[in-house]
Amino acid sequence: MGRVAELAGVTVRTLHHYDRIGLVRPSARTAGGYRAYSAGDVARLREVLAYRQLGFGLREVAELVDDLSTDAVAHLRRLRGLLLERRDHADAMAAAIDRELEARAKGLKVTPEEQLEVLGARLYDAIGGAYTATRRTEPRIAAQILDALGDAQTVLNVGAGTGSYEPAGRDVTAVEPSAVMRGQRPAGSAPCVAAAAENLPFQDQSFDAAMAVSTVHHWGDPVAGLREMRRVARRVVVLTFDTDEPGWQDRFWLTRDYLPEFAAVLAGFPSLAGMADAIGARTEPVAIPWDCGDGLFEAYWRRPQAYLEDQVRRAVSVWTRVGPEAEQRAVRDLRDDLASGRWKERNGDLANLEAADLGLRLLVA
């Protein structure tokens, strides 16, 4: 027990407490009769300590590690998802602190309320709250998704967020790992399960269809998540992004001219062909209308002034992922080019387009 405590970075007293409450009990014995931990005990302890470091209470930890439907791999994927969520939260806090530092450097007053929002519990809620202000169902994209769903009556929405694109008149079940997002789902929306795409807590072929909209790039293992969707549903419909085409970064003027760091955000993201092959899907291009009602990253391709608005950027994870320095530079350069007319010189032909293909793709299996 002393050796395990040393390796795990906890006290022997902690291990004794876990043993006493039945959370982690050493199941082996040494030749001298002392309690010892088997490999399985150590694996359980690792899960317990990881969940504890993420802030879960002992009762919650016990429920998680005793979940018979979750194996070691599923626990690792769940832990990875929680860690990524915490990382995004930390990135958002850092970005908020950078904005306050910039404000203070300019001699601007920062109120006590703003200071508390930067470091307090409301920060992530405020950032996530931007989704309900600018991220909503775009009817023309929704129509394409609905057509792909066909006559499916039971629908699982994976990575459901605040509930956009959930089809009316169907029996919908939502899956969303983020408590912040779950808390923003409107009253009367579909029931929402706290789970990750890579480990869906449903039996095989439980649903007529499973859908996922603009969420795959947030998953720890996109291919595993897609295969899980294929396991639990007879049809799969996924709105994602195509990075297969050579020079794909140049499709959109924002990434081409102002935010080349966007390519790094999708580094390691599976190819569209690879994701399609994993679930036997066909692909459909999804055009973005010039007046798109869903404030996704590419939505304002014909309305460049929108990217100068902080509220618009806060509702898109890309800006947090590239970091405040890249964001501030991109906004500054875009503002200058709009003022000088340079943006219009480069992109004036967009004014005649009603919709644009900027890489959004629908996988239908």
Note down, in words, how this protein is organized:
- The chain has helices spanning 2-8, 12-20, 39-53, 58-65, 72-105, 112-119, 122-134, 139-149, 179-182, 222-232, 253-258, 262-265, 272-279, 310-314, 317-322, 324-340, 342-347; strands at 28-29, 35-36, 154-158, 171-175, 192-193, 207-213, 233-241, 282-285, 288-289, 355-356, 360-364.
- By secondary structure, it is of the alpha/beta class.
Summed up, what is this model?
The chain has 365 residues and is α/β, with parallel strands linked by helices.
The low-pLDDT segments are 120-127
Main β-sheet, spatial strand arrangement: 5-4-3-6-7-11-8
Amount of beta strand: 5-15%
Please outline the major beta sheet: 7 strands, mixed
End-to-end CA span: 51 Å
Give the oligomer, counting copies of the same chain as homo and different chains as hetero.
single chain
Shape: globular
What's the pLDDT, averaged over the residues?
86
| Overall strand count | 11
Radius of gyration: 23 Å
Order of helices and strands: HHEEHHHHHHEEHEEHEHHHEEHHHHEE
The helicity comes to 40-55%
How many distinct helices? Answer: 17
Helix-and-strand structural type: alpha/beta
Write the layout of secondary structure elements.
Elements: H1 2-8, H2 12-20, E1 28-29, E2 35-36, H3 39-53, H4 58-65, H5 72-105, H6 112-119, H7 122-134, H8 139-149, E3 154-158, E4 171-175, H9 179-182, E5 192-193, E6 207-213, H10 222-232, E7 233-241, H11 253-258, H12 262-265, H13 272-279, E8 282-285, E9 288-289, H14 310-314, H15 317-322, H16 324-340, H17 342-347, E10 355-356, E11 360-364
Helix pairs in contact: 3-4, 3-5, 10-13
